[in-house]
Amino acid sequence: MTDGDAELLPATRRALDHRLAVTQAEGRAPSVVAAVVREGRTVWTGGRGELPPGADPATVQYRIGSITKSLTAVQVLRLREEGLLDLGDPVGAHLSTPHGGGATVAQLLAHTGGLAAEARGPWWERTDGELRPELADVFGDRPQKHPQGRRFHYSNPGYALLGALIEKLRGAPWAEVLREEVLAPLGMTRTGARPEAPYAAGWAVHPYADVRQPEPAVDLGRLAAAGQLWSTAGDLARFAAFLLAGDPRVLGAAGVAELRAPAAAPEPADWDTGYGLGLQVARREGRLLAGHGGSLPGYVASVWAAPEERLGAVALANATSGVATSALTAGLLDLVARHEPAPPEPWRPARDADPDLVALTGVWHWGTAPVVLRLHAGGVLSLGPAAGGGRRSRFDPAGDGAWTGREGYYAGETLRVVRRQDGTADHLDVGSFVLTREPYEPGSAVPGGTDPGGWR
User: Fold this and answer.
1) Is the pLDDT of residue 4 over 50?
2) Class of the CATH-defined domain 3-339
3) Where are the beta strands (DSSP E) in 73-156?
4) Where is each Beta-lactamase-related domain found (predicted)?
5) In whole angstroms, how far apart are CA 409 and each of 22, 201, 259, 406?
6) Between vectors from CA 124 to CA 149 and to CA 328, what angle results, nearest 5°?
7) Domain boundaries, the chain
């Protein structure tokens, strides 16, 4: 357990311990470890089952499979922020590849590049990567399964291309770049491409008998960027904290929010899940989550972050299947949220608020519909219906009397204050819609004009 455990009530810790024990027993896992993050700190860790003697559950390594993809995505966005690539660039503009070069960087990150789900056989997760020494060896006979950009289709070869892209632009091996630029700054010192003791051996547990056999732990070679990493509950808890707020040493809050934003439409059969840029997104119990699951022979793992509640949870197990780590992490989040809901941030008055902006606040009218403009810290505006449902958005200052919409219908759209010759506000222009102080205010710039007879 960590020192931060004191921040949780005893009843909450008992509930978390019980949920972990049930998952290990019902999942028939040799071992399971888990952790919960709140407000950027690890507040609970636990372990159940066969752990290395004397080892802290938070420090025992497990393979994390496709959670590796999320860390690869972080590194790709670092390259974008340095100006070395654009997410709209075709991968082939930077990297020589026999397949997938027409897909954009963003499409590979979001699994919309149309590439095959799996690498060339035999079963690549159980075959040593040395048998695929070249990038071309990753692709099978029909590598392109769908048109680029048309649909979500999970692709491990797509992330092999992203790993090769990182190596090309950095001039160093993918694992080395990731360690120096992402893992070390985040304090993930027990995460790497090779296991280091103490670590949990991977097992296949018989589905109908209480027996097991060891699984191979092969090096994935060219597919390493898709699933090679080993990590711990403690390190993944640090990553969960990063997914909540970012870290300026690695990727700021805006960049992490971009990772979390859905970039690919969900499959019609599963509208509660989607995919961002290297992160899965889901709705569980009404809660918006971002993170990733991972599996390789002998291991399963999950990490989920709930940004609105400033919570994160991770779980790792050493069994090929049967252990519901994703349900466990979502359940741990739900337990903490229900037992100890996070208080809202305290209200504080804005500092040095611009009087001209204060004067803009209040009720405006889009035609006959009243909407309310509010002013927040940093000159941020929000606009929404005075009552009931409708279009809502926050707007960030863009300079020159304009703001840019953050979300919803107005995401990316411009809000502008149009002033009279004397400098007073005449109306608001929101993506060409005119908002006036009074409904169809006489003399205002309502397109098409207003009836001279007025209201009757």
Assistant:
1) no
2) alpha beta
3) none
4) 21-329
5) 44, 50, 20, 9
6) 75
7) 3-339, 355-436
